[in-house]
Design goal:
about 140 residues; alpha+beta; 5-stranded antiparallel β-sheet; 3-stranded antiparallel β-sheet; 2 helices; 8 strands; elongated
Length: about 140
């Protein structure tokens, strides 16, 4: 029995399937490259810091800028928290004692309050700049 035609048709079918799925593979790798750029370690750390800070702001009875814009003080249910630039990091203190590092590798960090809007601008040691804005409503 002669199978030369069958092998040729089989190869054409496999080539067609490969040509259909190859662009999908290229799109997948393009997506993964852009995802890995977006998930840079410092950017992820900034996002975690932003979410944690938002939890302190949401439950605050009062918020004030301290140390000429280098930090903020929040009061939650009679507990006082300072979140401020310290050395090359942003730290959190409870009742001005001890400290818990919230963000590292910071060159400069400024907090500002305009009406109900709190703005934060942080410059990392590698030159990257991140900004965040929060609307603070009274309790």
């Amino acid at each position: 029995m002669d199978e030369k035609g069958f092998v040729f048709l089989n190869s054409l079918l496999e080539l067609t399937i490969l040509m259909i799925f190859l662009p999908i593979v290229v799109l997948f790798f393009g997506f993964m490259v852009s995802f890995s750029k977006e998930s840079h370690a410092k950017q992820m750390e900034w996002q975690l810091f932003s979410v944690e800070l938002q939890s302190y702001l949401a439950g605050s009875d009062s918020i004030e800028i301290i140390d000429n814009g280098v930090g903020i003080r929040t009061i939650q249910q009679s507990q006082e928290f300072d979140i401020e630039l310290y050395d090359h990091s942003v730290r959190k203190q409870k009742f001005r004692q001890g400290h818990e590092i919230m963000l590292t590798g910071i060159k400069n960090c400024r907090f500002g309050m305009t009406g109900p809007k709190l703005t934060i601008r942080a410059e990392f040691s590698n030159g990257a700049i991140e900004e965040a804005e929060y609307v603070v409503t009274p309790p």
